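Reminder to self: keep the SMILES exactly as supplied, no canonicalising. Ligand is flavin mononucleotide.
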Amino acid sequence: MTLTLTTAGESHGPALVGIVAGLPAGLRLDREAIDGDLHRRRQGYGRSPRQKLEADEVEVLAGLRHGRTLGTPLALVIRNRDHESWQWGMSPWPPAGEKTGKGTTPVTLPRPGHADLAGALKFGHDDVRNALERASARQTAIQVAAGAVAKSLLGEIGVEVAGRVLEIGGAGSGWEEVTDAARADRDTLGGIVEVLATGVPPGLGSYAEKADRLDARLAAALMGIQAVKGVEIGDGFALARMRGSAAHDEIEPDRGRTTNRAGGMEAGVTNGQPVVVRAAMKPLPTLMRPLRSVDLESGEPGEALVERSDVQAVEAFAVVAEAAVAWELARAAREKFGGDALVDFVGAHAAYLERIAWPPTR
Ligand SMILES: Cc1cc2nc3c(=O)[nH]c(=O)nc-3n(C[C@H](O)[C@H](O)[C@H](O)COP(=O)(O)O)c2cc1C
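Structure tokens returned for the bound complex:
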């Protein structure tokens, strides 16, 4: 059984869309839990006014009846309230009437650090907006909605996933001050987040092929989030500086461990310890004091586009990273435990735990 997510949607288009396939039938989804995570994603010090504008409530168009999944594709929609101001500029069809609102003037000054230049060259766009609208992290909203669904599924087998901020702008605390200082300089910041998953059974993922390794999949899931430039599994880079005697987690008689430097995975397979991953986010590339760029039309030097933007979005990133890890763990759990009905999935998990129980009962 494979869990898949297909998404569509531009930052200032009418809506974000997500189709989740591969859920078992009978899973109870909680609207407040999904909207609650969407709300968390919009929080954090240093966010732009857009976060206040967007309501971010999930609409479900298919795959759910009276709060329970049907085992059919689940169709999720989040409307972009900001589209109101972009109706002409982001109209899917040739717009009628006067040019009004935002997005009417083509963007020709790409922002360094964004998809702007590479995307315009790749797809042959004259208006950089055609690239930046989809590359924008606005689409992480639908990823967070899908992550909330994944967390509901994981909850059925006792797995909990939580993301938290470790650093913003190089600081381990005092985040409002560093953010205010960056804002005063019209600059931006990045940061580091950690995601912890508990209750993860041993045996998710595989070492059979590199694409099956759960560590590789989690790294890809996190790297797939906008602005992520580094991923660490367990003690990650610090392990490279240790001796083997200090780096590994010795196995105790009850098969448990007293350390978890491996971050809950060995050979790309979960080992029953909590899964611990960290990800590094670069400073946001839209600066209110714009970086140097070149006008793609005239070839003349200029200043990059300035568009409403966050000073830092690390708290939001922690929520997105949590969703990405939850999604990948749910995918691995679906592969291992399968089942068309939720009871089959939960039953397969229980039977597996019984088989690997220690000491063996039979
Ligand atoms: C939750 C979140 C919010 C973001 N908000 C902004 C923003 O307001 N302004 C901005 O310039 N970049 C923002 N970004 C980062 C850009 O989307 C990202 O740097 C850009 O897409 C380039 O991606 P890359 O670093 O993967 O190449 C945000 C990223 C995330 C994860």
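Points to follow up:
The mean pLDDT is 96.
The radius of gyration is 22 Å.
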